[in-house]
Amino acid sequence: MSNAVSALQARVAPGEVTIREGGLRGMIILRGDLASKKLRNLCKTVTGVAVPAQGQADVTGDEGLCWMSPDELLVLVPYAEVGEALAAIDKALDGEHYLAENVSDARALIHVEGAFAREVMAKLAPVDLHPDSFNPGDFRRTRLAQAAAAFWMRDEDTFEVICFRSVAEYVFGLLAQSAKEGPVGYFAKT
Amino acid sequence: MLTLHCPCCGVDADETDLHAGGEAHLKRHGPGSSDEQFEEYLFMRENPKGVHFERWRHAYGCGKWFLAARCTSTLEVFGTYPAQTLEPPQDIKDAISAKRPGWVWREFS
Predict the structure, then answer these.
(1) Inter-chain contact B17–A126, Cβ cutoff 8 Å?
(2) What residue ranges define each of the domains in chain B, with the CATH number in brackets?
(3) Are A42 and A28 in contact (CB under 8 A)?
(4) Which member of A78, A128, A147, B19 lies 3.0 to 4.6 Å from B59 by CB, making a disulfide possible if both were Cys?
(5) Start-end of CATH 3.30.70.1520 domains in chain A
(6) What is the ipTM of this complex?
(7) CATH number of A12-23+106-180
(8) Which of B11, B15, B18, B66 to mutate to test the interface with A (most CBs of A within 10 A)?
(9) pTM to 2 decimal places
């Protein structure tokens, strides 16, 4: 097999808020009936976490689940384990109506880390990112400027952003510029 | 700027997250229908100043279609509801009646 490289090969834009390309991450799109017991048990086996509620994500380290839509989950696993996870899904859901596809190489992962990460994101997305309405555990699919993206918070000062690989350069540039321009002070901590 | 609540994923989505899909509650006329019915289905649309029903797709979000009732002159949103609905649900009609007594839109009122 060819040597897999991530979209921006771990590029870093250092600063008060650091933008860091997250490297390779195993991502599987899983569509099906999210209420199905089989599917729920399977997700737990593959990632170790339960299927998150609507609009939520449960990600620890490289593994987790994100709620993408009423019939779609994003399964995150370490890059090297995608094949194994996909085989487990296909085996467990055999005969059910479902779709599982490895999209690891179609996506890019970018970390936004630092004190005002929240504002770096808020400047680019039409989303209410106030601490009262968006917190670790929440997940949102939306756009960053002109490109589709999805993000969640790993902790209070860290966002993880996923976007299509083809727009990784653009999204990285956006985030880096947003970080460089500094905080707005809109979400000032009290 | 419109903000519509997506009933499929529970998000208050900005207009720029959405894609407009034209008029809601169209009755599809296909093979076997009269020319008048087919013309109606293809071309005849409401263009009201006031209460209107539209299809929207949460394009940048969950990707699902839903329906919205809103006022075209004030951009006031009366409510959104699932696309798998043949006519506006009663609570949406009530919400409109509270604000626009006597409203009429196609066969609904």
Answers:
(1) yes
(2) 3-99 (3.30.2270.10)
(3) no
(4) B19
(5) 26-104
(6) 0.87
(7) 3.30.1360.120
(8) B11
(9) 0.90
